[in-house]
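User: Is it possible to get a 3D structure for a protein together with its bound compound? The compound here is cytidine-5'-monophosphate. I've pasted both below.
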Amino acid sequence: MLSVVPPPVTAGAPAKVNLHLAVGDLRADGFHELRTVYQALSLSDRVRVQAAPALTVTVRGEGAAQVPTDRNNLVWKAATRLAHKAGMTPSVEIAIEKAVPVAGGLAGGSADAAATLVALDAFWRLDSSRADLVAIAAELGSDVPFALHGGTAYGTGRGENLLPVLARDTFHWVLALARDGLSTPRVFDELDRLRAHAAPPRCGDAEELLQALAAGDPARLAPLLGNDLQAAAVSLQPELRRTLRAGVDAGALAGVVSGSGPTCAFLCADHDSAIEVSAELSGAGVCRGVRLATSPAPGARVVADAG
Ligand code: C5P
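Assistant: Yes, that's possible. Here is the predicted structure of the complex:
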């Protein structure tokens, strides 16, 4: 019988910044209870899937050398779990094109996993329900459901339970990339250690921040940005203090460590200000590089294949 090989499918998925990240108690399962406001950034990775004799993963682009290409890659797990659920054999090549820094607190690995779910769902013509994809996403990692969702969302639990949040207009960011990454579990452990000895600052509730988002007002949003993990990330990489100061000195409205870091995200008044801040920051010698981004951005979705 003649079998038709389906054409390759490419999907993109966004990086995220946590505008508000309140870390609660350590749970019995090793995760911390979170209350967070996620916003998706225009910085995104792409994943292309195509037929292959067996499951293989290739990576190119930003930080590619640090990304595993075996079963330790989240996209491998995404493919095997979706295949298992659908009764398929995951005979595909998954080619990841990275723009999101690795181990940067921007959920790049989660974006790749979400893009893989969406790409394979289309490639295998599964037409899975949103709820089915979200359930697999939540098994893969705390941030993967948000990478599917995109936009702006309030996350609870491990961060995987999402409610959409109203956000007006576009926000402009400069991302300062650090020279070395930070491991997420290590940053959470460091926060537990700091809390055992002292009282690092804690975010309050997100009420005012949600209002600033609904109003689309960056000047109102800026002083409300907060991240409980920032103290831990700065404790592990003290040079981040200088980076955070340099961004504000360069004219940003505010700076915050993104998620578990070490990327610092600077909120700017508008596009022109973001260009100026990025130029000054890249000349200040406080980071490996800078990226401009806007938010919110859409969640994981199939995109036209550039070949
Ligand atoms: O869910 P994910 O695999 O991204 O989490 C990586 C690690 O980050 C977890 O193993 C845990 O150490 C830490 N974490 C946490 N609480 C969360 C999310 C992540 O302690 N809510």
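The mean pLDDT is 96. The CA atoms of residues 65 and 131 lie 34 Å apart.
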